[in-house]
Amino acid sequence: MLRIKKIKNRGKRTMSYVRDENVDRKAKPCKALTSVLKKRSGRMRTGKISVRHRGGGTRRRYRQIDFRQAADKVTVERVEKDPNRSCFIALVKDKNNQKYYYLACNKLKKGDVIYTREKAENNKGNRSKLKNIQAGSIICNVELYPDNGGKIARSAGSSVKLMGIENGMAQLKMPSGEIRLVKDECYATIGQMSNPENSAVRIGKAGRTRNMGKRPQVRGKTMNAKDHPHGGGEGLQSIGMPYPKTKWGKHALGVRTRPKKKASNKHIIRRRSKKRK
After folding, report:
1. Are 191 and 102 in contact, with CB atoms under 8 Å apart?
2. Residue 176: inside a domain, yes or no?
């Protein structure tokens, strides 16, 4: 449920956050399933910045997620908030009391039982092969290649629609509208990913963004001409060119970055745009 902060100052006037009753906010992460996450502030080993606008932020530990969900039957102990990703995660336990972290589906709660089988029941959270899932179902955490772990639809609220299966290949419709083929031996989780209201959250103030490890961005048109192709001029000026450029002079918008000779291009039936077939 999306809630708005009480008005105490200007920063909190429009700030909002997600409060889910199934999420245990006071729970500490399982120490055996966490590791140190060293910050590099977007820098390479040489110390040069390779990714801009990163740095600072609160300390956090990485939660080791089992994207394959290999255990046959597990029980959800609690649902937690992971600071490293937008969706919620679930701490589960199998019959041998071995604990794992799974990506939580929407409306998953404590005490639910999750099955991972070649042909599992069509219930939320269960994981099954694509060939045994009913056509038209909403799925998430889908494998691109068999036994390689979930790669598709892992962010908050994301999901993929299973259009059908033909000649050993499953047709998946992405949120972008792209339709691609995946082997029907791949596993997928039934349901939508948790925290669907994440996209509606309002940050509210700059300090909250800095706590996430994001540094401020400066528009190119406000820079000097030597620092950016959009820079230079006096006062509020346009970029002065037919198309926007990056800081290094390359096209910034509408450029296809996918390699033309990539092997998996043959598995894409329809691109996001009808013009790009």
Report:
1. no
2. yes
- Phi, psi at 267, each rounded to 5°: -90, -5
Q: Are residues 57 and 144 in the same domain?
A: yes
Give the C-alpha separation, 126 to 105, whole Å.
Answer: 9
3-state percent helix, strand, coil for the chain, nearest multiple of 5: 10, 30, 60
- The DSSP result for 219-242, as a single string, is -GGGS-TTT-TT--SSSS----SS
Q: Domains in the chain: how many in total? A: 2
| Domain assignment of residue 155, given as a range | 18-198
Q: Would you mind telling me the total number of residues written for the chain in this entry?
A: 277
Q: Are residues 275 and 175 in the same domain?
A: no
Looking at residue 239, which CATH number applies to its domain? Answer: 4.10.950.10
Give the C-alpha separation, 38 to 151, whole Å. 24
> Would you give the DSSP letter of residue 22?
T
What does the pLDDT look like over 125-175, one tens digit per residue?
999 999 999 999 999 999 999 999 999 999 999 999 999 999 999 999 999
Take residue 102 and report the two structure tokens written for it.
Answer: 């799974």
pTM of the model: 0.88
Strand, coil or helix: what is 131?
A: helix
**Same domain as 231, residue 123:** no
Q: Which of 219, 14, 229 is nearest to 3 (CA)?
A: 14
Tell me the pLDDT of the chain averaged across its residues: 92
Task: Let me know whether 175 and 74 are in one domain.
Answer: yes
